[in-house]
Write a structure and sequence with these properties.
With 176 residues, the chain is of the alpha+beta class. 31% of the residues lie in helices and 35% in strands. It contains five helices and eight strands, in the order ββαααβββαβαββ. α1 crosses α3 and α4 packs across α5.
C-alpha cells in the first residue's frame, strides 16, 4: 500500500501529517480515544463512555483498523512535534454501506480540537470516498454538537439534517 503523506498547518502553527488508515492503526485509534473527554466521547458516539472497558476499546479499534480496504477508507493524522513525532491527533473514515453510500465518522483528541484538523481530515476522507464512487455519506450527530455542524458547513457539500429527538440523521451529497 502506498504511504501517501499529506500535510497541513493548524491555526496555531502546529505541523500535522495525515496518511491513509492501515491495519496497524489500532494503538493510534485507542490513543485518540483516551485523549477525548467524556463530553467529546458522548458527542462522537452518542452514548456515555466515562469508564469504558479497555478490552472493548481495543477490540473496536482493531475491528476498525483491520476492516477490508474495499469496505472503508480514511486517514489518520499525526502532530509532528519536535523530538516526539507522530503523536496521533485524529482520524476520519467512511465505511461503505452499498455501492454509492457510506457512513462517515471523525474524531479529534480534545487538546487539538478547534485547529481545523477535523474539517481537513473529513475533507480528505470525503475526497477519497468520491474517488471510490461514493455519492452520499450518512451519519448521526447530536443536535447540540455545534462543532460537527461547523465542520459540515465548512466542507462545502450540500447536506440534509433530519432531527429525530436529540439526534439528527445526516446525509451529505458528495456525488458529481
Amino acid at each position: 500500500m502506498e504511504r501517501k503523506l499529506i500535510q497541513m498547518e493548524t491555526k496555531s502553527g502546529k505541523r500535522i501529517t495525515a496518511r491513509p488508515l492501515t491495519p496497524y492503526d489500532a494503538p493510534y485509534l485507542v490513543d485518540i480515544f483516551e485523549h477525548m473527554s467524556p463530553e467529546s466521547r458522548y458527542n462522537r458516539f452518542q452514548q456515555s463512555l466515562e469508564n469504558p472497558n479497555p478490552k472493548q476499546i481495543w477490540e473496536e479499534a482493531e475491528k476498525i483498523a483491520q476492516m477490508e480496504d474495499e469496505q472503508q477508507g480514511g486517514f489518520m493524522a499525526f502532530w509532528q512535534r519536535p523530538f516526539l513525532p507522530d503523536v496521533p491527533v485524529g482520524a476520519a473514515r467512511y465505511v461503505r454501506l452499498d455501492e454509492e453510500t457510506a457512513e462517515m465518522a471523525m474524531s479529534v483528541r480534545d487538546d487539538m480540537q478547534g485547529q481545523g484538523i477535523g474539517t481537513w481530515l473529513l475533507g480528505l476522507a470525503v475526497e477519497e470516498a468520491r474517488a471510490a464512487g461514493i455519492r452520499q455519506l450518512v451519519g448521526n450527530a447530536l443536535n447540540d454538537n455545534d462543532a460537527i455542524w461547523r465542520v459540515l458547513d465548512k466542507l462545502g457539500y450540500p447536506y440534509q439534517r433530519k432531527p429525530d429527538g436529540v439526534i439528527s440523521e445526516i446525509e451529505v451529497d458528495v456525488g458529481s
